[in-house]
Amino acid sequence: MKRVFLLVTSLAVALFFGMPAFAQHGGGHGGGPPSGGGPGMGGPGMGGSMGRGGTMGGTRGNGSMGGPNVGSQSVSHSSPTSLLSTNTHLASTLQSRLGSMLPSGMSLTDAASGFKNLGQFIAAVHVSHNLGIPFSDLKDKMTSGDSLGKAIKALKPDAKSKAEAKKANKQAKEDIKESKS
Questions:
Q1: Is 0.90 surpassed by the pTM of this model?
Q2: What gap in Å lies between CA 104 and CA 147, rounded to an integer?
């Protein structure tokens, strides 16, 4: 009888302390990104992926904007150049909002080429403008695999890269939202 009581008590204690840990790890439903939009942005990233880690994220992703759609195309899964070339309303809205922040003579589609998604591109434009980092330097870092936060840290070490990435991802989300209306 003592053994049964001890076994039942031990099992109850193990379950009591084990369930919170089980719940914190997704209940055994596997790994992967959370459903319903990414962090990152953000999505999303806009954490990225707004680099890998997304959140358009929080700021960890720094690449995915989460999952907003512009027209029938997903902002987080289509290349920014294809989105801009097929959606004239989006292109004209973003041109008016971002054009003055781009290097002179650079078109919106040229500036967007190479970025993983539209949110990542727009966030990079905002970081360049906000921190005075040359856009071409930021683009080179990000299109070669660095997250937005890592690129900021490398190009402007004294900046608060996490906070700046978060701010830019928020600005990017606002630009995308505005372009949908």
A1: no
A2: 25
> What CA–CA distance (Å, rounded) separates 96 from 100?
8
Q: Residues 30, 141: contact at Cβ < 8 Å? A: no
Residue 151 in tokens: 């690129």
pLDDT tens digits, one per residue of 68-122: 444 444 445 678 888 888 889 999 999 999 999 999 999 999 999 999 999 999 9
**Cβ–Cβ under 8 Å, residues 94 and 125:** no
Instruction: Tell me the backbone φ, ψ of residue 78, rounded to 5 degrees.
Output: -105, 150
Q: Which two structure tokens, joined as six digits, stand for 130?
A: 């906000």
Residue pLDDT, tens place only, 113-123: 999 999 999 99
Q: Please give the structure tokens belonging to residue 175.
A: 């630009």
**Residues in contact with 42: Cβ distance below 8 Å, sequence separation at least 6, in sequence order:** 48, 50, 54, 55, 56, 57, 58, 59, 61, 62, 63, 64, 65, 66, 119, 169, 172, 173
For residues 65-102, b (16+ Cβ closer than 10 Å) or e, as one string? bbbbebeebbbbebbbbebbeebeebbebbeebbeeeb
Domain spans of the chain, in order of start: 37-180
